[in-house]
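Task: complex structure prediction.
Instruction: return C-alpha cells for all chains below.
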Amino acid sequence: MNTNEKSGFAKFIDSFGLPRLIITAFLLLLLVACPFVGADLPTQISNIISRFSWNGVLVLAMVPMVHSGCGLNFGLPLGIISGLLGATLSIEFGFTGPISFVMAILISTPFALVLGSGYGWLLNRIKGGEMMIATYVGFSSVSLMCMMWLVLPYKSPNMVWGLAGKGLRTTISLEGYYNQVLAKFLAIKIGNFTFPTGTILFFAALALAMWAFLHTKTGTAMTAVGSNPVFARAAGINVNRIRLLSVIMSTWLAAIGILVYQQGFGFVQLYMAPFYMALPAVSAILIGGASVNKATITNVIIGTILFQGIVTMTPTVMNNMIHMDMSEVIRIIVSNGMILYALTRKTEAAT
Amino acid sequence: MNTNAKKREKAGAFLRQSSVPIMFVIICAVCIPISGLSPSYLINEIVTRMGRNVFLILSLLIPIMAGMGLNFGMTLGAMAGEIALILVSDWQIVGIPGMVLAMIFSVPFSILLGWFCGKILNMARGREMITSYIISYFINGVYQLVVLYLMGSVIPIRHGSIKLPRGYGIRNTVSLLNMRQKLDNLIPLTIAGVKIPVMTFIVIGVLCLVIIWFRRTKLGQDMRAVGQDMQVARDAGINVERTRIISIIISTVLAGIGMVIYLQNMGNIATYSSHSQIGMFCIAALLVGGASVDKASIGNVFLGVILFHTMFIVAPKAGAAITGDSMIGEYFRVFVSYAVITVALVMYETQKRKRKSLEGQKLAQAQKGEQNKGQKEENEA
Amino acid sequence: MNEEKTPLLKMQGIKKDFFGNQVLTDINLTLHEGEVIGLVGENGAGKSTLMRILFGANMIRETGGYEGEIMINGEKVQFHSPFDAIAAGIGMVHQEFSLIPGFTTTENILLNREPTRKSLVSDIFSERLNTLNRKEMEDRAAAAIELMGVNLDQKMLISDMPVGHKQFTEIARELSKKHLKILILDEPTAVLTEKEADALLSAIRGMAQRGIAVIFITHRLHEILSVCDRVCVMRDGKLVTDVAAKDTDVPQITKWMVGREVSENSKPQAGGEERHASAKTILSVSHLWVDMPGETVRDVTLEVKEGEILGIGGLAGQGKLGIPNGIMGLYQAGGKVMFKGEEIPLNAPRKCLDASFAFVSEDRRGVGLLLDESLEWNIAFPAMQIQNKFLKSYLGGLVKWRDEAAIKEITQKYIDELAIKCTDSRQKARELSGGNQQKVCLAKAFALNPSLLFVSEPTRGIDVVAKVLVLDALKKFNRENHVTIVMVSSELEELRQTCDRIAIVSGGRITGIFSASESAETFGALMLSNVI
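Output:
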C-alpha cells in the first residue's frame, strides 16, 4: 500500500519532471509571500497575465518545429525580423491606429514566408545539426539586419534618428500606432486587476488554430515525422516538405508573436534586441513540459505562465524581502538550466 | 584518368577547405586601403592582438581533437580566470607574481567547471555544441550570482575600490593597472616601431610545444581515437567518457590561463561582459584560419588571428569611409563573425551527410556496372 | 596425436536461453593447440551466440549468463568482459570492422596497446602522458603483419584502404597481442576478393603452424574443407556433427546444416492443402539492384503469381532483405518493377503505397513503429495518409480532420483479431512486447487493404506462441482477402510451412525457385551456391 502510493508519487514526479515541480513550487511560494512583503497581489497577477499575453504567441511558435523533429527553434530571431520589417514598413507607409497592426501582420507575412522557406531549406540540408545552426542563423540575420536598419531608406520622422534624418532608432514608440490595440479590446478592469481580453483572445485563436492543425491529416503527418522520420517515409510522407512547412509556420508565428509583444510593450525594439529573444521562448516551452521532440499547446500555456510568473514576481518579492534584486540572475539560471535539462534527457531523436 | 580525377578531387577539397581564409584575404585586401590606416599602426595592432588572443584560441584545439566540436564552453575557463584575477587584485598582489598567482588560482576553478561541463556533454552526446553553448549561459548566471551577490557578502573582499558602493558585489570594471601589460613588457623589444610582447610570445610558443608534445602522448592518441569513433575506442578498452571529460578540462584550464593573459593586456576587467563574447570571437578566429568543426591545427590559429583581427581593425574605418557611418563597420564585423561560424557549421553538417550519400552512390554505380556487364553476357548468350 | 594432451580449449555442456527461448543446448567443443576448426550452420543456428559466450560479450551477461563450463588449458575460466577473454589469449575478428578510419594501419593494430616511453611528466601525473614510441609501434605492427603473411602498407590510413585490407588489419591486430592462443574469425572472407581470400586461407595455415588455434566461421564450405582440420556443424542450437574435414564433403555438410526430421506439424503446406494456384503474374521484377548496406541486391529477376505466398529465403547478408526494401523505395534501387501490367517507379515510397503495396519491415523499432505514439496512431497512420481513411472532411475537403472514433474502432478490431496484448488502444507502442509490436506492424499493413503485401522477417525476435499467431494471421489474410504475400525470412522451416513457393537468394541473385514441398537439402544447397 505504502509502496504503491510512493510509486504513484514517483510516477507523478516522473511525468511532471522534477525541475518543473521545483519551479511551480517556487512560483507558488512567491505568490504566497507576496502579501507579506507588502506587494499587491492583484497587480502582480495582472502583471503575470499581461506578460503571458505578450509572450504567448512567441512560445507557440516553437510548437511546429518541435513536432516535425527540427528541435527547438533557436532561429526564432529570423521570424522576429520578419515581424520587425512588417512593423516598420506599416508605420513607414503611414498607417495608424488598429489598421497599422493589421497591416504590420499582412506585410510581415510574405517576409516570413520567404525567410522561412530559405531557413527550412537550409535545415533540411543539415538534419541532425539543426539547433546549433539555427542559433547562428538567428545571430547572423540579426547582425545583418543591424546594418540594414541603418542603410534602408526609411523616412518616417517617428522612426529615424532626428539629427541625421536617416537610420532607424533603436526603440520606436508605438503611441498613435498599435500600442495596446489588442490589450484594450474588451479589457476588464477591477481595481488593480486588469485583464487584457483582446490579447488573450488573439492568442487563444492562434493556439486553437494550432491545436486544430495538429488534428488534421497534415498535422498528424507532422507529428509522425518528428516521432520517427523513417516510419513517416515508409508511409509515403515527403519528410522534407513537412519539415519545411513546420519551419515556415514557426517563422510566421514568430513574426506575429513579436507584433503582439510590441503592442503590449508599446515599443518596437530594433538592432540587437531580437538577439536573445529565442532563449526565453525556448525555456518557457520546456518549463511547460515539452521535450526536444514533443510539445503540446498545454505545454505552451503552462510554460509561459510559469516562466513569466517567475520573471515578474522575483524582482518585486525579492526586492521587498531581502533588498537584493537577484531576479536577472535567477532568470538566467532557471531558463538555461531548463534548456540544459531538456538537452541532456535521453530521447530517440538524439540518435 | 583515375589519378587525374583524384587530383582534381584533392584540389577541389583544398579549395573548399581554404575558401574561408581566401575570402578573408580578399576582404582585408579591399578594406585595408579604404580604411586609410597606416601600415605601422596596423602591424602594431595585429601584433598586440596576437599576443592577447592566441593563447585563448589554442585552448580550443584539444576538444576538437577529441571529436567534441567547437568548445563554446571555453567561456567557463574565461570566467574562472576572471574570478582568480578579481581575488588576486583584491589581495593587492601586483605585477608578474600577481599574474602567476591568478593563473595558478584559476586552475582549480577551471577544473571544477570543466569537469561539470564534460559530465553534462557526456549526457548530451551528438549535440555537444549546442549544449556547451547553453552551458556557457548557465554558468554565466552562476558567475553573476557569485560575483554580484556573494563577493563582499560571503566571500571576503577587502578593497573598496573594486566593490560596488552598496557594500557587496564587484564593480562593472576592475582596474588591473598594476598588472597592465607586465607580461608583454617583461622583455621590452621594439622593431621598426613595432612593439613586440616577447614574453607573451614565449609563453604562447611554449604552449604550442606542449600541444605538439601532447599529440604524441598516449592520452593524445586516445583522444584522437575517441574523436573519430567512440564505439571502436570503447571496444579497444579506452575509457571514452573519462577521456572526453579530460579534454574539456584541459581546454577550460587553458582558457582560464589565456584569459589572464588577455586581461593583463587589456589592463582592466569588464566584470560582466569580458567573457561573454570571448568564446564567439575565438571560435570565429579559429574558423577564419581554415579550421573546421572536426579538424584544427596550430597553423589555423595563427592565420586566423591575423586575418580575423585585421578585418576587425579595418572594418569600422572602412565602413565609415564608404558610408559615412562608423556603426556600419561595427555591425559588419559582428555580422562577419557570426556568418563565419554559421558557414563553418553548415559546411560541416553537409559534408558529413555528403560523405554518407557518396558511399551509397559509389556502390550503386559499381552494381550498375556489374549489372550492365551481366546483361551484356546474357545478351551474348 | 593431440589426444593425450590437455586441450587448449574445452567447452562443456554450454547452454543458453534468451528469456526462456533456448538457443544453445548442451554444446561440447574442444580445441587443441594449432588446430583449425570450421564452424558452420544456418543463421540463427547459434554460432554467434556460442562465440559471444567464449568471448565474454556483455550481452550474454546482461541476458542472464550461460550454463556449462569453459576450460582453457584445463583451468576453468569465467569471463566478465571481452577484456578478460583477451587477457586469457582469445582474439576475435568481428564481421563489422572495429577500426579508426583516420588512423594508419600501425596505429589501428596497436590501438590502446601502444608501446610508450616514460617521461618526467608522466611520472608525476599519469601514465597516459607517456609519449608514444613510434618506432617500436612500427616494429611490432610489422611483426604482426609478417606473422599473418599478407602484405599491408603500414602507413596507409584505414579510410583509404580497400575493404580486404581492413579485414587483414583487424586480423593483424589480434595477432599482435602477445598471448594470443585462440583466434575466432567470424566470416572473414565475406568481404574479400578471391585472391585475398586465398591469401587469408594460407595465413590461417601459417598461424596454425605457429601454434595458434583458429575457429573459422564461414558459409563458403570449400574454404572450410581446404583449411580446417575439423568441421563442426550447428543446427537449432545443437552441435550436430564434429568430424574431421578429410572425411566429409560439401553436399554432406549442407545436409547436416539444413536436414532435420520432418515432424507432423511442420509439414510443408503446399502439399497438404488445395491451393487456388493462379497462373497470372501480378508482380514482375527484372534486374533489380538495391544499395542496402549489408544486404546488397545485385541482379534479381522474379515473378510473383496472384494470390500466392512467395517465400524468399537465404543466408544473412546475401540480399534477401534488400528486395522488399528496394521495391518499396526505402533504399536506393534500380531495375524494373511491373505490377498488374503497369510500371512502378522505384525510390518513391508513395508510389508503391498508392499502387496498393504494403510493407512490414524487418526493422520493427526503426522503421515499423512510432514507438512514442499510441497503437491507434501506429495502425491508422499509413491508411490515413495514403488512402484518406479515418478522416472527416470539412469546408469542401479543405480541412481533413482526424476521425478519432473511426481510428479507435479499427484499432480495436485488430487488437481483437490479432490478440494484441495491451492495456488499451491508446497505449504507447514502445510499451508492448516484441511479438505484440509485430502484430501492430501487421495490423498497420492490413489496415491499408493492400493487394500485395511484403513481409520481412515477421518472426524475428518473438517467442514461439506469437510466431504461430503471426504466421497464421498472414495465411488467413492471404486466404480470406486474396492478398498476394511476399514473405522474406531467414528461417527456411518457417517458409516451408507458410509459403507456396520459395525463392532462394544468394550473392544478391536468385539461385532458384521451387515449390515449398521441395526437400530442405535442395534449398540448403541453393543458399550456399553463390555465397559471396
